[in-house]
């Protein structure tokens, strides 16, 4: 995974700023996270810090971003140097996460879908759990287990699923960010039962699945028909739990 995003680098930032897909993603993130005044937040798979910075803007007092890609962390640190917010960034593998502190909220925006085995998925969930205070929240965005490639490829939203193949108990997917130039990645689509097994084994309770909400401004900008495939065949989903 590190090598994929070492290559993507700044193109991922460009994608966030230009594609339609991040609009409901950001809207849903802000609704789930809510007000964080005085709280501590940990952002796993932080990339270049896009959502890490939003955690700070939501009022979090102490924010740490962690990513396995040195290139992405370097970009995040550069953004911090340009506009200081007091965010710390570290290179670390979320599947082998050390104890970084006691956080009120841990976010993982597209981390779990890079777990290549059940054990790796469980390790990611355990790492998040161990860094939460009692009652703390884990908010993860991942690939919807019920996505059906034959119903659509999602290319018009800026992220195209090129193909999938079933290997064992998970699908291996190839996809492309419609950045300039395009950037290809590989991820894994796990089943609902596997995700819930990993979360429960890690110790999480009150599990909840949430589909992304399309804000009114996105409908106004692109039209209702544009988002029909997004609603009818969701590719992305939020999974939350509490310690």
Can you characterise this structure?
One of its GO terms (biological process) is methylation. Keywords: Methyltransferase, Transferase. This is Methyltransferase domain-containing protein. With 243 residues, the chain is α/β, with parallel strands linked by helices. It has a single domain, classed as Vaccinia Virus protein VP39 (Rossmann fold, 3-Layer(aba) Sandwich). It is built from nine helices and ten strands. It starts with a helix and ends with a strand. The relative contact order is 0.17.
Which features would summarize this protein structure in a list?
seven-stranded mixed beta sheet, alpha/beta, Methyltransferase domain-containing protein, Rossmann fold, globular, 243 residues, methyltransferase, Methyltransf_25, three-stranded antiparallel beta sheet, 10 strands
Compact description:
By secondary structure, this protein is α/β, with parallel strands linked by helices.
Q: How much strand content do the residues show? A: 25-35%
Task: Give the ordered list of helices and strands.
Answer: HHHEHEHEEHEEEEHEHHE
3D shape: globular
The average pLDDT score comes to: 94
Number of strands: 10
- Total number of helical segments? 9
């Amino acid at each position: 995974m590190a090598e994929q995003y070492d290559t993507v680098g700044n193109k991922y930032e460009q994608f966030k700023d230009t594609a339609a897909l991040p609009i409901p993603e950001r809207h849903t993130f802000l609704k789930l996270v809510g007000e964080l005044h005085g709280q501590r937040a940990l952002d796993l798979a932080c990339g270049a810090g896009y959502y890490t910075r939003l955690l700070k803007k939501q009022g979090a007092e102490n924010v740490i971003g962690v990513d396995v890609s040195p290139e992405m962390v370097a970009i995040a640190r550069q953004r911090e140097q340009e506009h200081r917010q007091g965010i710390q960034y570290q290179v670390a593998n979320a599947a082998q996460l050390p104890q970084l502190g006691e956080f009120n909220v841990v976010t993982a925006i597209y981390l779990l879908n890079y777990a290549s085995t059940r054990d790796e998925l469980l390790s990611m969930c355990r790492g998040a759990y161990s860094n939460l205070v009692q009652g703390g929240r884990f908010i993860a965005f991942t690939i919807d287990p019920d996505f059906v490639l034959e119903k659509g490829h999602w290319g018009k939203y800026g992220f195209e699923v090129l193909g999938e193949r079933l290997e064992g108990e998970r699908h291996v997917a190839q996809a492309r960010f419609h950045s300039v130039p395009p950037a290809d990645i590989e991820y894994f689509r796990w089943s609902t039962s596997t995700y819930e097994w990993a979360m429960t084994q890690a110790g999480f309770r009150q599990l909840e699945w949430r589909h992304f909400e399309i804000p009114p401004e996105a409908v106004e900008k692109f039209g209702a028909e544009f988002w029909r495939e997004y609603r009818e065949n969701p590719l992305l989903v939020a999974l939350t739990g509490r310690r």
